Amino acid sequence: MEQRRLGRLRHMSSVLIYGGAALSEVTQDVADRSIQLALDSGINHFDTAADYGDSELRLGAWMPRIRDRIFLATKTGDPTAIEAYDSIRRSLERLRVARVDLIQLHSVGALDDLDRRTASGGALEGAIRAREEGLVAAIGITGHGMKAPSVHLEALRRFPFDTVLTPYNYRLTRYPEFLHDFEALVEEARAQDAGLMLIRPLPATSGGRARSTASPRGTNRSRSDRRSMRRWPSPWIGGRRRASAPPAMFG
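Now predict its structure.
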């Protein structure tokens, strides 16, 4: 499988990222078959989150065997420094590891949420503490909705996040304001050499019809929606502006 450099972290990540949300409510047997298939297919970047049900536990069963072969990322959705730090420590226990390669502030898709998490005493301080203690190697940010690219652009202006996971798909690009914000985010990520990853580049479908991922009010998706998401390769839909894409862009 093709690999690309994850920004200044310099990890050569597979262009497909394993979305651990799919493991939130499955048995270990189902998880085992899924994880093995991913490994056999060349996926070396695994992403999960504290609020993805049993996902961290399912992946944790594999860590004694594969930890040195993969890039391991998780997320915290807690808003305060203390809560985020405690969440990170619980994630390490559930994953059966001493450190993760990346901790991400989870589902930050609105400016007021960014304000809370980057303020004094906010979640970002908890992530920084965890990095200083060697519990995490890098800090990123994720989010959903129409406003996510503009919020993530502002996030990069406030703090040098190592990675950004943001939405992108054809339906979203039909909104000029979204496309403008996304392109500005790409330029800033390139300037900072931050790893840029894409989520939901193919809208989820129901009954053969695509459901729009657009959210004009910029609201974040529900937890059940996040659990059902899938990640697919998408270095710019249809090859659009592929030549100018940043060093690392994943689905």
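Residues 206-251 have pLDDT under 50 and may be disordered.
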